[in-house]
Design brief:
Blueprint (H helix, E strand, L loop, with lengths): L2 E7 L1 H10 L3 E5 L4 E7 L3 E6 L16 H18 L3 E4 L12 H14 L4 E8 L10 E5 L4 H17 L4 E6 L6 H4 L5 E8 L3 H9 L1 H24 L1
Parallel strand pairs: 4-5, 4-6, 6-9, 7-8
Antiparallel strand pairs: 1-3, 2-3, 7-9
Helix pairs in contact: 2-7, 4-7
């Protein structure tokens, strides 16, 4: 998604810019010239699931989902920022701006993405099982009618698979299993469950290797965006 940005430069700098690269002059006065410049940087919303009053699921040792998701989300966002993407976070700490109401909580997260006119919305969560069934693995919820986001989900799964830390449980269609931040979002969205907090191996990996998970998620996002850009150019 292309965006337009306006900035001011001095006349001397502008002349050098015009000679070297060319530009479209918008306004002129004695002090500065306003220039339009194309900004192709995508805006990606990174949503750390739960937070504040909502702790999410809890491990046997008391570790809370909201802390695991925040750690992975911040690291993922940092990697995307370093790569030049514009990143917006729904939260950057355990202090949340929305009231202690689940629907308002979820809608606030969606509003952040829509107000930012974001290109993608990535929600990071941790799964759990109420049964002693050995459930483990990562899975992603996405609208199967959104081909671009399905491809992004597959790209993320491909990168997570390289870590070889647990099972790939595949993609889930939010048309059959609606999730608020995906189904009620005008921004292309997906929700990733990184692993099961109730599985000892998944839990240990998520806690001790959050940077590896973040790198895999960021790589999956970036690879998908680059592939989409190539397809658009063909």
């Amino acid at each position: 998604m292309k965006k337009i940005q306006i900035f001011s430069v001095s006349l001397g700098i502008l002349i050098a810019f015009l000679l070297g690269f060319g530009a479209n002059v918008l306004l002129f006065n004695d002090d500065s010239i306003e220039v339009y410049a194309n900004d192709n940087t995508e805006t990606i919303v990174i949503d750390a699931g739960h937070g504040g009053y909502d702790v999410g699921c809890i491990a046997w040792d008391g570790t809370q989902e909201k802390d695991i998701t925040l750690d992975i989300a911040l690291s993922t966002g940092e990697l995307l920022e370093e790569a030049g993407y514009n990143v917006v976070y729904t939260r950057t700490s355990d202090n949340v701006s929305w009231p202690e109401d689940n629907k308002e909580d979820l809608q606030s997260r969606v509003d952040i993405a829509e107000n930012a006119n974001a290109d993608y919305y990535i929600s990071i969560h941790v799964n759990s099982s109420d049964y002693n069934d050995g459930a483990s693995g990562y899975e992603t919820y996405v609208d199967f009618n959104d081909d671009e986001m399905v491809e992004m989900a597959e790209s993320i799964h491909e990168q997570l698979g390289l870590l070889n830390y647990t099972l790939d449980r595949g993609l889930m269609d939010t048309n059959e299993i609606p999730l608020y931040v995906v189904s009620n979002n005008s921004i292309p969205a997906l929700l990733l469950e990184v692993g099961f907090i109730t599985d000892i191996n998944d839990f240990n990996y998520m806690v001790n290797n959050s940077d590896d998970l973040a790198q895999a998620i960021a790589n999956g996002i970036m690879n998908s965006i680059k592939a989409e850009e190539i397809n658009e150019e063909v």
